[in-house]
Amino acid sequence: MPEEYDILIKNASIVDGTGAPAYRGALAVKGDRVAALGKVEGDLMAAAETIIDGEGLVASPGFIDVHNHGDLSILYYPEAESFVRQGITTFVGGQCGNSPGPFGEYIGLPWVLGDLYVDLAPTLFNREWLIPRETLNPRHRELFGWEIDWNTMGEFFERVEAKGLSPNFAPLVGQGDVRSLVMGPDFEREATPDEIDEMTGHVERAMEDGCIGISVGRDYDPGIYASFDEFLACAKVAAKSGASTRATASAPGTGSPGGPGSSLRSRQRGSWRPSTSAGRRGCLSRFPTSAPATTSGPSGATSWPRRR
Question: What's the topology of domain 4-61?
């Protein structure tokens, strides 16, 4: 008697992710696991609730998107259809120093709420990075029916688990949000030693909550004002749990306080230095080209990538 499966995909071209050539075969799913793969015995006769004829199609392991901001929208679009329809089954969120927490009195701009931020704090060109939570939540509740009521990354994960999500989510904590939590709107300067010490406490908590690493965004508020020592201190704390550090490289022409392409002295010492100096793996998650930044307005203010 043939094995019973929940889903059977037959006659597909299978690319199994091992580097082996594609081959024609079948893939069977039982529960939430792949139960059989390859030339499944009796695949054409196997019983399954759903049988999919994969003729002319490719069956492969899900793709992993290693630089993604889906964590900022997953509570709004938990099915993440745009990911799944591309074959993305796992994403690494929290990139560019921007994650959905930790939060305090202010909320750092998640791109999915860009229009809402402009409504609440109109600007001529670029949007504000921070909005007071008490200003944001009434309008947010009116639009979505719920509030941003969590503080820690762990509390955010609880909200995600309660709502459910389609893809797998590997979270990073954004150093920019940690910085904003400690410094509030007074972030356009280097942090003091006491402030850096407070930041490391929040990073440690995020690692304990389940984050797999930390990201820094050196082209964006508030990270463009951070020193190398600040990044290094946060990276060292993350490294204690075996976490990695991901950095967004500085872009030429960025309007940062240290001049184009530099963010105080941290920019002069290399995007990947915090991770390597902390003794852990690092990843330069985006590398700029030499193309000049565009400008807009009579002031000639840089229109990207700063948010202010």
Answer: Urease, subunit C; domain 1 (2.30.40)
